[in-house]
Design a protein that fits this description.
The protein has five helices and seven strands. The chain is of the alpha+beta class.
Length: 246
């Protein structure tokens, strides 16, 4: 048989050319390469985990570092003079007040047939304030312990700091006059003064000086504890009497 007479396709089949890689071979090689990359990455991750775990174990077994002792700060102790200065900034410690409303009658006798006679009826409301004048406190009145935790104070005596009438609550209830007599405003002022004396007397009888002493110590104790003292003591002192000019 003459090969020249065979068709070209059959000739190629009888004399095959060198084989070229097909699509399946290329896909297989790509898959193998991907698996190789995954295996390498997994190995690196495992090595990293093992390294970190070993470091943590070593850190747990290693002895703790010995702390170094530095210079301890020196505690600040408040002096008695500093305490006095802080207290004096309060100026006055108004610890107790007493308010009373009362009715006062004031009369002025008249002459023949009641000429010049007057009588007023006044409702007054007054207030008395007691407390401590802290400007009278001196360095000798405050003693601080060496550790700065205790303080002993001798407070000035309680006194009446102010007394006044409430003008808004004070009113003239009645004013009677005799024949040919004009109302005298000075009699109203006299009645108000009498009313203030009664308010002051009622405050003293109600124990305003004693309550002001106790409240003053309580307020000062709270103030000194805020300053940092653990223990606050006061020199025992008797309760002063009310002023005599009531």
């Amino acid at each position: 048989m003459n090969l020249e007479s065979l068709p070209r396709a059959r000739k190629d089949a009888m004399n095959p050319s060198p084989r070229t890689p097909n699509v399946q071979d290329r896909n297989r090689r790509r898959a193998e390469a991907r698996w190789l990359v995954v295996l390498l990455a997994g190995s690196l991750v495992m090595l990293l985990i093992v390294a970190l775990a070993g470091r943590a174990v070593w850190a747990g077994l290693a002895p703790a570092p010995t702390p170094t002792l530095g210079r301890m700060p020196t505690p600040t102790v408040i002096s008695g003079v500093a305490v006095v200065q802080q207290i004096q900034r309060l100026s006055r410690l108004e610890t107790n007040s007493y308010s009373v409303q009362t009715v006062v009658t004031a009369e002025r006798p008249g002459g023949f047939l009641g000429i010049g006679q007057q009588k007023v009826l006044v409702i007054v409301r007054g207030t008395v304030v007691a407390g401590i004048d802290l400007s009278k406190l001196g360095p000798q009145d405050v003693k601080v312990s060496p550790d700065g935790k205790r303080v002993k104070v001798k407070l000035p005596d309680v006194e009446i700091l102010s007394r006044y009438l409430d003008e808004g609550a004070t009113q003239l209830y009645d004013h009677q006059t005799g024949l040919f007599t004009k109302p005298d405003s000075s009699l109203v002022l006299e009645a108000q003064q009498m009313g203030m004396s009664r308010v002051m007397q009622a405050a003293c009888e109600g124990g305003i000086m004693k309550r002001a002493t106790e409240d003053g110590q309580r307020a000062m104790r709270d103030f000194l504890r805020i300053m940092g003292f653990d223990t606050v003591e006061f020199d025992a002192s008797s309760v002063p009497p009310c002023p005599e000019d009531i």
